[in-house]
Write a structure and sequence with these properties.
single chain, 439 residues, mainly beta, Immunoglobulin-like, 2 domains, six-stranded mixed beta sheet, six-stranded antiparallel beta sheet, 2 helices, 43% strand, elongated, Arrestin-like_C, Arrestin_domain-protein, Arrestin-like N-terminal domain-containing protein
Length: 439
């Protein structure tokens, strides 16, 4: 049996062989006698430099001198990560990571001994001193307060909490006694490289790249992670019913900012499971209306300290539509399938844990409190008393695997949706790539 080109899995490789989303861009900073040049992954030379986990912070320091006295005793380049607590009307800054190198005088090694050596350079003209420092993936924080665990180096973080994380480069000119030292500070942004832990399925790759409908869980069950919950409620005629609801998220549950998150919803029941079988179809039809079940993504930012601080916000809400072609007959057990999509904001940070901060994301499912003709019955389960009925932890990534197509948008334009449910939706635009994704 021969295989067609469409049967071959698309090529992909670990991002370790394609470490950074953008090529280097040069930034230049000047002071009275010095010029500092660094390369970063920012999109514009006038913007704040950007570095990713594993980036090499490389550049040069240039000095113009006219006399021997103009030459500093030493030049040190240092990069530092710092946490800032903004409670109590003041900002308390505490460094948690530091890396430095002395670029003048040079450090030389002679056999088994090493020392700093003062070299004789011409005192007139321009002197250029290159430097490079690599940003690590994991660190042991400074001042760990008894906690010596290693953590992934956290991203730059400025949010609604009274705590922030920022990164700074220092270029320090030490001039010795009776002379003023000089320090130039350059703020930069750091972000981890977050990628999926596994590739998507061949069928989904084919659907994304060729503009085909998304394969439902009944066709590709291994491409979804799912959970089922019962929804118990009462109809207007007083009949009590129980409908099973299944939320199916595409795997891996790792999603790109600025791109859609796809899922399926299944509402179903089997004959003989309820005393009010005659009303199950009515209940399922009510719950399968687009506004009845709400699926949304929630971001949770937690600051663990005295006076525990927690901020959660809904950052994306899904659009759902019914797939009538997948409805089943009543004698087979009533079933309704809905496809859903969430357009994620483009500025989401990957989640992280770095004491005292935690940032995480969840996809939640709940029932609208005012569904016409259906009211949820009170239950002993706290999940149906103000909390979501279902809650999935998900991952935000910022890099796709090489060779994988980006997810297209399937949801119909609102102005094109009629009162009748759509049966078949194909992507409305071809896959697109952004600057932060693999080429």
């Amino acid at each position: 049996m021969t295989s067609s080109p469409h049967d071959v899995a698309p090529p992909y490789e670990s991002m370790s062989s394609y470490p950074y989303p953008r090529p280097l861009l040069r930034h230049t900073y000047t002071s009275k006698d010095a010029e500092i040049e660094i390369g970063s992954h920012a999109s514009h030379p006038g913007s704040v430099p950007i570095f990713f986990t594993g980036s090499v912070v490389a550049g040069s320091v240039s000095l113009r001198t006219s006399a021997a006295a103009d030459m500093p005793k030493s030049i040190v380049v240092k990069i530092e990560g710092c946490g800032a607590d903004h409670t109590g009307g003041q900002s308390l800054h505490e460094p948690f990571w530091r890396l430095s190198t002395t670029i003048y005088p040079p450090f030389v090694s002679r056999g088994t001994t090493s020392s700093f050596e003062t070299i004789h350079r011409p005192v007139h003209g321009k002197h250029v001193f290159p430097f490079s420092l690599q940003i690590p993936k994991t660190i042991t924080p400074l001042n760990p307060r008894g906690n010596s665990h290693q953590y992934d180096l956290p991203p730059t973080f400025t949010d609604q909490l009274a705590y922030s994380i920022h990164y700074t480069m220092f270029v320090e000119f030490k001039r010795g006694l009776m002379r003023l030292d000089e320090s130039i500070q350059i703020r930069f942004l750091h972000f981890p490289i977050a990628r999926p832990g596994r590739p998507m399925s061949l069928l989904r790759c084919n659907a994304y790249s060729r503009g085909l409908p998304l394969p439902p869980p009944s066709v590709e069950p291994g491409d979804y992670t799912s959970s089922i919950i019962p929804i118990k409620g009462r109809l207007l005629n007083g009949a009590t019913v129980c409908v099973q609801c299944e939320l199916c998220l595409t795997q891996p549950t790792a999603y790109l900012p600025g791109k859609p998150l796809h899922f399926f919803l299944k509402l179903f029941t089997s004959p003989g499971t309820s005393q009010n079988d005659a009303f199950l179809g009515q209940a399922i039809d009510i719950l399968s209306a687009p506004a009845s079940i709400k699926v949304y993504m929630q971001r949770h930012a937690t600051l663990s300290r005295a006076g525990h601080d927690h901020v959660s916000e809904i950052i994306a809400t899904a659009t759902t539509w019914r797939l009538r072609a997948l409805d089943t007959e009543p004698n087979e057990g009533i079933e309704r399938i809905m496809q859903g999509e969430m357009a994620l904001p483009p500025d989401l940070l990957p989640g992280f844990v770095f004491p005292p901060l935690r940032l995480e994301y969840r996809v939640n499912l709940t029932i609208d409190a005012h569904v016409p003709g259906f009211s949820i019955l009170p239950t002993a389960s706290p999940a149906q008393r103000g909390s979501p009925l279902l809650s999935y932890p998900v991952t935000i990534i910022n890099t796709s695997l090489i060779g994988e197509p980006l997810p297209p948008y399937y949801a119909p334009h609102p102005q094109h949706v009629s009162a009748r449910d759509v049966q078949h939706i194909t992507p409305r635009s071809p896959p697109r790539r952004s600057l932060t994704e693999s080429e």
